[in-house]
Each structure stands twice: as C-alpha cells, then as structure tokens.
TrEMBL record:
<dbReference type="Pfam" id="PF01925">
    <property type="entry name" value="TauE"/>
</dbReference>
<feature type="transmembrane region" description="Helical">
    <location>
        <begin position="98"/>
        <end position="122"/>
    </location>
</feature>
<feature type="transmembrane region" description="Helical">
    <location>
        <begin position="71"/>
        <end position="91"/>
    </location>
</feature>
<dbReference type="GO" id="GO:0005886">
    <property type="term" value="C:plasma membrane"/>
</dbReference>
<comment type="similarity">
    <text>Belongs to the 4-toluene sulfonate uptake permease (TSUP) (TC 2.A.102) family.</text>
</comment>
<keyword id="KW-0472">Membrane</keyword>
<keyword id="KW-1133">Transmembrane helix</keyword>
<keyword id="KW-1003">Cell membrane</keyword>
<keyword id="KW-0812">Transmembrane</keyword>
<keyword id="KW-0813">Transport</keyword>
<feature type="transmembrane region" description="Helical">
    <location>
        <begin position="134"/>
        <end position="158"/>
    </location>
</feature>
<dbReference type="InterPro" id="IPR052017">
    <property type="entry name" value="TSUP"/>
</dbReference>
<feature type="transmembrane region" description="Helical">
    <location>
        <begin position="194"/>
        <end position="213"/>
    </location>
</feature>
<feature type="transmembrane region" description="Helical">
    <location>
        <begin position="165"/>
        <end position="188"/>
    </location>
</feature>
<dbReference type="InterPro" id="IPR002781">
    <property type="entry name" value="TM_pro_TauE-like"/>
</dbReference>
<protein>
    <recommendedName>
        <fullName>Probable membrane transporter protein</fullName>
    </recommendedName>
</protein>
<feature type="transmembrane region" description="Helical">
    <location>
        <begin position="225"/>
        <end position="245"/>
    </location>
</feature>
Amino acid sequence: MTFLLITTIGVACLLGGLLKGISGSGLPSVVVPLVALQSDVPTAVAIAQIPTLAINLVQAWPRAHPARSVLPHWPIAATLFVATLIGVSLLRVAPPTILLLIVAGLTTFAAMFLVLVPSFVLPKRLRLTVGVPIASVAGVSAGLASLAGPILVPYLLALRLPKDLFISVVSLCYLACIVPTIGAFLYWNVVDPRLFILSGVAVLPALLGMWVGNRMRDRIDERRFRYVVLTVLVGTAALLVGKAMS
C-alpha cells in the first residue's frame, strides 16, 4: 500500500462519484481501471465496492417519483444478483483482460447506436426478453471486473426513463451486483479482507463527488442528460481498452 496507490484511490473515487452524481453511472468504471494501474484487478474491484454501495443506497430512492415506480424492474435486479455470484466465482480462475475488451466493444457499439438513432425506444413487450440476457452478461461482468454499467446502461437508456427515475433504477441494479460481490469476496477470500477497510475510507471522496454531481445534474435537461450518459459510456470504453492493453 503506497502513497501513490492511496492518492490514486482518492482521486478515482472523487471523479467516479462526480460522474455517478451527474449520470447515474461511472464510479466502478473509473475506479477499477485507474486503481488497477497501480495494483491488480481483484484489488481494484474490492476497493470500488463500499463507495459504490454507499452511493447507490443514496440514489436508489427516487427524488421526484414514488418508490413503487422502480418495482417493475425487479426481474432485472434479480438476474443481476445471481449472475454476479457466478462472475465472482470465475474471478478466481479467469483473467479479465478479454472481458475488458469485449465490454469496451459492446459499450462503444451501444453508445454509437443510441447516438445515431436518438429516437429509439425499446418496446415494453420486449423489455424482459431483451433485459434478462443483458442483465445476465452484465452480472457476470460485475463479478469479474465490477463493470455492469457499460452493458446495463445502454439498455436502461433505451427504456427512455425520466432522468431521476433512471438514476434510481440503475442504482437499484447496481445494488443487486454489489451485495453479492462483497459477500462472495469475503466468503471465498478473493482478496485480503482488510482492503474493505480502505474501501470504507474511500466513501468520503466518492460521496463528495456525488454531491457535486447531483447539483450539476439538476441543471441538465432530459436531452442533455441523455448525451452526458452516452459520453460517459464512450469514455468508459476508452478506459477499458487502455487497461486491457496495459
């Protein structure tokens, strides 16, 4: 545990919290690649867990909608929970480099499609048919590299949810990934449990970044919010490629 690593964790969590506050996503996608440059992927994934848990607990409660408005998305959250357990079990035997490249490719393709076809809306009759397979892949990716967002967010964007409801639904989905990840990491001793103490300290810069990001989001209309989220996705893809190549 070096000074450079601790500084990297603090800066990464601050930036990740800022993006999470603005777009509803981005904390693990920033923290994991940046921290992994100074350590390894399992360590980076462990560090990302407690800040991500804290932020998503705060954001899962809708700010401008009734709490029941997130309930129709429970099948996606349940699928994510099970698939994440599978992904964490694979983390002990499967190197995530190829996964990073695959996720980067899928993220770039989905983001470009939504930019080129801005009026696309996924029909309600197809939401579970499309959403459950996507959640399965996203959950495995979450367990392997704490990267459900790059796969899951394009699907949620295609639902055309209002921005505050989008934030709540994506936060609920992330909670479905985080809880089994933390439990499985501790049960299987994937990493040194003491890393979760450092992860707990990293909550502070993450919450500070989220606080600033929330206020920035309040000034963004629905159309600009959508493009902010797409920009975050493309930036995430670039980070993933950089980490895989390194």
